Every structure is written in C-alpha cells, then in structure tokens.
Amino acid sequence: MTTETPSPTSASTAPSADAFAERLFTAALATVETMSIYLGDRLGWYTALVEHGPLTVDELADRTGTSLRYAREWLEMQAAYSILDADLSADPIRFGISPGVAEVLTDTNSLAYLGALPRMNAAAFAKLPELLDAYRTGGGVSWEELGVDARESQAALNRPWFDRELAPALAKVEHLHERLSHPGAVIADIGFGGGYSTIALAKAYPEARFVGLDVDQASVEMARRNAAAAGVDGRVRFVLADGAEAAASGPFDAAFAFECIHDMPRPVEVLAAARAALAPGATMVVMDEAVSDEFAGPADDLDKLMYGFSLFVCLPDGMSSPPSVATGTVMRPSTLRSYATEAGFGRVDVLPIEDFAFFRFYELIPD
C-alpha cells in the first residue's frame, strides 16, 4: 500500500480531461471487480473452487446450488479479470483459483484475508437512497440499518489480527501486560462488534474476566455465539448497553475500545463513563485508524480508504443519533486527544504497537 503523501495538486499537475476520464474508467472497473468478489464470497463460489476445483461451469453451479447461466457469466468474468484461471485446453473449460488468490479471498485466519471487504461496500450501496437523503438533511444511517453485511465485514476483517496479533502486541507493553495478567482482573471491551477482540483477550489472559458493552443487539448475539464456540463464554459477558453506561459494570482494571470511538455520536460521554469506571491505576486503550496527523489535500492510500468508509458507513452511522459530534472514520490523533481531555483523562500516549493492520493504539491515562 502507498504510504507516501502526494504533493498538493497545482494547476500544472492537475489531470487533463483525458487523464481523468481514464482514471474514472479504471475506477469503474475496480468497482465491478469488487462487487463480483462479493458475489463469489456470498454465493460460496470461491470456497467451492478452493475445496473442489478446478471446476466446470456445471460443476460449480451444482455444488453451490446456483444458476448455471449466472455461474458461467461470473466464471468467465473472473477469468477475464485474471482472478481465476481458465484451462482452455479442457473440454468443457475448467476454472481454478491460485493459492495466493484463495488465501486473500477465503482464508479467514490469514492476515492477508480481505474476502469480506466487499460486504462493507454492498451494505452501503444497498442504502444509497437513504444516504442521499441523509446528505441532504444532515441525518444518518445507523449501523443497525446497514445490516448484516456491514456487521460481518468488520468482524471478519479484524478477526485474524485479533486472533493472531493482539496478544503478542499487548505483551510488548509491559505495564499493561502485567495489569491484564493479574488474577481476578476485570476488563471492559466497549463496542466489541463480533466479540473477537474480547475473545482474543480472554484467551491471552485466562485469569481475567471480561465485560463487553455494545449498542447493537445483533452484534451482542453474534458475539455470544462466537464466545461459546471459542469456549470462553464462562469468563466473558456481552451486554447490550451504551458505552456511557460503563460505570455501572465497573470497576475495571483496564478498558478497551477497538475501532469504534470514531463511530460514536457522543464519544466524550463514553470516554468519561469509561474513565469513571476504571479502578485506581487503570488505563484505557483505544485502537483506531492510523490516519495522518492532519488534512493536507492529496493523501496516501490509507487516508483515501478511510475517507471512503467515512462517507458511506461511519459518518452516517455517527450522525444517525443526534446530537452528534460527527467524527467520521478519519479521526486525527489531535481529535482523540481533545475528546480524552474533555472526558477527564490527563494524558494520551501512542503505544509502541506497529504494523497492526491499519490501526494505531492509544493509551488514555487518568490524572
């Protein structure tokens, strides 16, 4: 991924009409490609190819219980985009998937997994009429309205990082690791989504107990199922509650908020409640997008992606519950620091956790 920030656009570097038309055409191809991956993900076509391929059109349709004609069009389109391989020497033609492509699209344990990413686009595209209305009126579209595609996309994309990297990352922060390892420690996970962050923490710190708080009932139910499947439900409790109600579940020896503060309509209230619920000497850890420090016009790919998520998902979600501070996905470090200060925290440090997907870890320290 590109990380260097481009130079600001000037009149001499601005694209010509032909150049921008070519760029938009390329973007249209990428949009179609992304949504075709959504089809392959949701219809089980990629999984069938991984488990049973190479397959003919008839075999893929039969194994997945899907339309033969649509399966043919999709397979040919995937080969045209060089996502799948087509053996033209076979009669009938057989389609296969290479190991690298299979890992990215189907291996939910891989740090390279992105197969669920198009679900977030699909969730937003399905709500375009509502989003247009929100843009005109200043309203919003809530996480609940965005539905299962958005909910499962975020949970699935973060899961391998939580499963494989969260415990090692926290173990490198000695004072935090010691506190989490204390027998009988009670840890909060605010805005837990699919619950994979809480589950990873519970596996890493078996002598602690965990309380998850989330405002989305469907997420609570999903997290409870995931905790039971992971065998940690005896030490993990997921409850339907606003983060502002954290104090009622405390005191906590540590509190976490993974990729959710920027979605909250009233983050200062949540942070203040979390601070009030912390036991003496405890701190709060916020994981959020590692965007650049300030707006500077042309941006790197990470900021571009986050602006996309903000425009279609996070900002409308945050604005769906007025009054809202309307943060959006591109939450600069200075913005979080201002929220933390207003909530009564005395200091915000960036933890020495690097190369953790798209994220930065902050430690919020009370006075």
From TrEMBL:
Q: Which InterPro entries match?
A: Methyltransf_25 (IPR041698), SAM-binding_MTase (IPR053173), SAM-dependent_MTases_sf (IPR029063), WH-like_DNA-bd_sf (IPR036388), WH_DNA-bd_sf (IPR036390)
Residues annotated as domain Methyltransferase: 187-281
- In Gene Ontology terms, what is a biological process of this protein? methylation
Task: Offer an example of a GO molecular function term for this protein.
Answer: methyltransferase activity
* Keywords, alphabetical: Methyltransferase, Transferase
The record's listing under CDD domains reads: AdoMet_MTases
Taxonomically, the superkingdom here is Bacteria
Key word Flavoprotein present in the record? no
Q: Does the keyword DNA damage apply?
A: no
This chain belongs to the protein called: Methyltransferase domain-containing protein
